[in-house]
Amino acid sequence: MKLRHPEKQNKPVNPIKKKPEWIRSKLSNSKEFFLTKTIVNKNNLVTVCQEANCPNITECWSKRHATFMIMGDTCTRACAFCDVKTGKPGKLDALEPVKISEAVKKLNLKHVVITSVDRDDLNDGGSNHFYEVINQIRKINPKTTIEVLTPDFLRKGEAYKKVLEANPDVFNHNVETVPSLYLKVRPGSRYFSSLELLKNAKKINKKIFTKSGIMVGLGEKRDEILQVMDDLKSADVDFLTIGQYLQPSVRHHPLDRYYTPEEFDELGSIAKAKGFLLVSSSPLTRSSYHADEDFAKLQINRNNNH
Residue 1: what pLDDT? Predict the structure, then answer.
């Protein structure tokens, strides 16, 4: 049996703070929600919606929007904020690209988001698998736009270039938090490596939209958030997402505080003023939340800027 974050079993218990009224998940009995669930389950697919206990799953699945998580449900890292289980992953499923492309067709997705667990055990970090998934989706769904949310491919050399070779429409990699919290929150990652990845993605393909996101409420200071905005802007990132950290369990990193909707509006306004092509800032903002509508906005904003 795989334990969810086995190395966290002896960590201190961090009580979970009660959620404010502006953070509430919606319930649904819609046929579309259950149709999405059936398609995902029948194809034995993994979604980050389920694995990370996303608060928006009901709303998104009711619109047939699911974010597929490739390369299994077990991560080689143990980020203190994340609810995806940690352990030794299994072998890659050679049929996964076909299964996902068929699910995309059944769900009739105009825009699809593909993410993955970290696979530090693989020589290429899984970049070839991303390449195969993207190409297979394109083969069966030529009109569907594709967004990838990738790991950092740390210590994998230029493996990330294989993902870009498949020419996704959006390349997303989240920095997640401010540099001062990395050792506690993302011990297996390096802030400046993540920035470099985003910067290189844009250098390699000027047409691609680059995207990154941070969570707030982990104990960061306001000035640090603004510095991350500047760093991402310097890396030529187009789209910034800012959302509230929600502590998954008492064994995860403690929630420092809930930001108010007004604070999210203010952070969003500051980011827009810094020149990002698009900003999404709200308590329930997540990387792939409203990704299809946001992709349409990115295209409009880019055209208006030319």
Answer: 41
Reading the block at residue 262, the tokens are: 């007004």
- Per-residue pLDDT tens over the stretch 6-43: 444 555 688 888 888 888 766 555 776 666 667 666 66
52 pLDDT above the threshold of 90 = no
Q: How far is CA 150 from CA 16, 55, 145, 221, 227, in A?
A: 29, 21, 16, 26, 23
What structural domains does the chain harbor? 28-305 (3.20.20.70)
The Cα 158–Cα 136 span in angstroms is 22
Q: Under DSSP, is residue 94 helix (H, G, I), strand (E, B) or coil?
A: coil
Within 10 angstroms of residue 95's Cβ, the number of other Cβ atoms is 11
Judged against a pLDDT cut of 50, whether residue 2 lies above it is answered with no
Strand blocks (E) in the chain: 67-70, 74-75, 85-86, 111-116, 145-149, 170-172, 209-216, 239-244, 278-281
Q: What percent of the chain has pLDDT over 90?
A: 61
Under 8 Å between Cβ of 216 and 265:
no
Q: Taking residues 208-237, report their average pLDDT.
A: 97
Rounded distance between C-alpha atoms, residue 69 and residue 130, angstroms: 10
pLDDT at 141 over 90: yes
CA 199 to chain centre: 17
Q: Is the pLDDT of residue 146 over 80?
A: yes
- Region of 150 (left: φ > 0; alpha: ψ -120 to 50; beta: rest) is beta
Kindly report the average pLDDT of the chain as a whole number. Answer: 87
The pair of structure tokens assigned to 47 is 């979604």
Contact 290, 111 (CB under 8 A): no
Residues 132 and 152: their CA atoms lie apart, in Å, by 18
Q: Name the β-bridge partners of 113.
A: 67, 147
Whether the pLDDT of residue 83 is over 90: the answer is no
Residue that is written with structure tokens 């569907």 in the block: 144
